[in-house]
Amino acid sequence: MMERLGEPAYRGGQIYHALYSERRFDLAAMTNLPAGLRERLAREAAIELPRIVQRYRSSDGSVRYVLALATREAGARAATIETVFMPEENRQTICISTQAGCAVDCHFCLTATLGLIRNLTAGEILGQVLVALDENRAELKPQTNVVLMGQGEPLLNYESVMAALRILLDPGGMGISPKHVTLSTSGIVPGIERMGLEKVRPKLAISLNASSDGQREKIMPINRKYPLEKLLEACERYPLRTWEHLTFEYVLLGGFNDAPEDARRVAKLVSGLRCKINLIPWNPGELPYEAPDAGRIEEFRKILVEKGQLAFVRYSRGQDVFAACGQLALIEAAKVDSVQGLQN
Ligand code: SF4
Question: If exposure means fewest CB atoms within 10 Å of the residue's CB, which of 65, 173, 193, 212 is most exposed?
């Protein structure tokens, strides 16, 4: 853009640095740019972050933001997405969306009820991190973790997700370490294979949630397309870096997939992989699943550990504001039309 404006290319680098490294969003305040250029940019360009239309603060400190997306085509369905900011003692974790809605149709996930509205652009993906950091700038901790676990299947919006990640992970850009960024997939095998070839990539998490094909198909229809055997073969071939583990996420649905036999089958499925397993007890909500019994959770974890696996129980945050895993579907979905007037 700078070259097109007849400026030296390094001006682009200065703006990139101000925007992503220093997180300054006011072109007029970029005083290392000549005054003439700043004036011209004020006329011809704009820096826009996704617009927050709602903030829900949880008693555990996390904040769920509802962001309005611009409607790109006349008559297109208006869309909002969600981003969750979770402060911890020494770091913050930001959970971002990669699509508005989702077509994958996992039955335990409220986002699935929206269907796919549209893919997000790289700017809209990255913008969520910038907004969350900017909103909470007064109390930021030194470390930021980003998880691509909000609305959408990131590997079905591959190009935009990777474009956003390249800036997020660029030491001269947002400078977040790949050790602190995790992309979670429902198991899109071609996407996993493609991501393994990327020079710049985050950590990979697989949403497993079942111990057999029959069981997985009942809650994740995507398993018919990419059954466990194919998925786990892709995991075996995945080129892990020396410091890296694969993560398997396993939402424990009471009475459905939380039996001791399930734990033994899961241990067998992932044996031989350098991985850890996060057990996420189901958050009771609008969908017809039950929270697992505390004893079953611990037994499940113990069986995995006895079989030599790294297994942890992770409780979702922000449950009281519907920010928890699988609940990012907008209670506001029905109110989407009223949000239209707030679009960028
Ligand atoms: S869990 Fe993820 S992939 Fe599955 S429907 Fe929900 S958003 Fe889509």
Answer: 193
- If one residue of 82, 104, 110, 251 were mutated to test the ligand 1 pocket, choosing by the most ligand atoms within 8 A of its CB, it would be 104
82 lines ligand 1 (CB under 6 A): no
Q: How far apart are the first and last CA of the chain?
A: 22
Residue 18 burial (C-beta neighbours within 10 Å; 0-12, 13-18, 19+): buried
Whether this prediction's pTM lies above 0.85 is answered by: yes
The response to whether residue 96 sits with its C-beta less than 6 Å from ligand 1 reads no
275 in contact with ligand 1, CB cutoff 6 A: no
> For 243-252, how does the pLDDT look when each residue is reduced to its tens digit (9 = 90+)?
999 999 999 9
* Closest Cα to atom 4 of ligand 1: 106
pLDDT in tens, 108-123: 888 888 899 999 999 9
Which residues on adjacent β-strands are paired with residue 281?
252
- Kindly tell me the burial class for residue 242, based on how many C-beta atoms sit within 10 Å of its own C-beta (0-12, 13-18, 19 or more): exposed
Angle at 100 between CA 98 and CA 101, to 5 degrees: 110
For CA atoms 305, 311, 312, 318, give the dihedral sign: negative
| 240 CA to centre of ligand 1 in angstroms | 24
Q: Please name which of 323, 264, 326 lies closest in space to residue 291, comparing C-alpha atoms.
A: 326
Q: How far is the CA of 249 from the centre of ligand 1 (A)?
A: 12
Query: Is 325 a known active-site residue?
Result: yes
Q: Which has the closest alpha carbon to 188: 234, 150, 236?
A: 234
Pick out the chain residues at pLDDT < 70. 72, 74, 318-344
